[in-house]
Amino acid sequence: MGIQAVAVIGAGTMGAGIAQVCAQAGWDTRLFDAFPDGLAKGRGRIDAFWDKGIARGKTTDEQKEEWSGNLRSFTDMAEAVNGVDLVIEAVPEILDLKQQIFTQLDQLAPQNAVLGTNTSGLKISDIAGVTKRPEMVIGMHFFNPVPIMKLLELVRHEKISESTIEIARDVGAAMGKSCILVNDVPGFATSRLGVVLGNEAIRMLADGVASATDIDTAMRLGYKHPMGPLELSDLVGLDVRRDILNNLAEAFDDESYRPHPLLNQLVDAGDLGKKTGMGIYDWSSGEKIEREL
What we know:
By secondary structure, the protein is of the alpha/beta class. The protein is built from twelve helices and ten strands.
């Protein structure tokens, strides 16, 4: 099955990034969001990324024109998924919401279309189970920023077909991603490790072990992490991190996964990280600045 057309559901940070790499792969790419403002912001993120590449000499005006020609925006889901070969859902990490989306996709998308979910840790079987084609549903966990991060975590569940897995591998390769395949266990391989490290770093910060900058520097220089766990949490989104931790706590019936109170405090205050200009760090100036917490 060759991919010609792809629909991306959700124009937030992840959805916009996924749509961007799909357009760059040469596919007819439809970016859907029910909210026009959100759709406009998503397209703005993509254009800003391409413009930055042009300014740095990494992208040409001709490439941007070509890629832009592959990308269209939709606020009607039926129109967005009409005739596509692949749908990638990238809405917030809320199981009920994803199940609602997949119930709609099962009715609206072509019967031969593979349905991917960009969940960071929800069970794929819980999402696939609301469709009449669970064998064609797969977890496709991308990483932020999608155009730069090379990993694509594919998640298999009990009812998936091998052909769906192979299609997803081919999609990842066409995007320039390296794929890993994991089983349908909450948190998969990456989120389960990543959020626990980030949560413990927040605990250390709250306990006064060291400053945020020094905790991040310790992991960058001492363990060769490209980015410290606190900065990474701000980049991913503190709300996303909190949702994953709560999902893990419930899935494993283990309260040790619960988000640290400081994480809850920041999210409840609307300080979600880089996307809101304030998180563990102050990003309001466009640069990372340590803040008092």
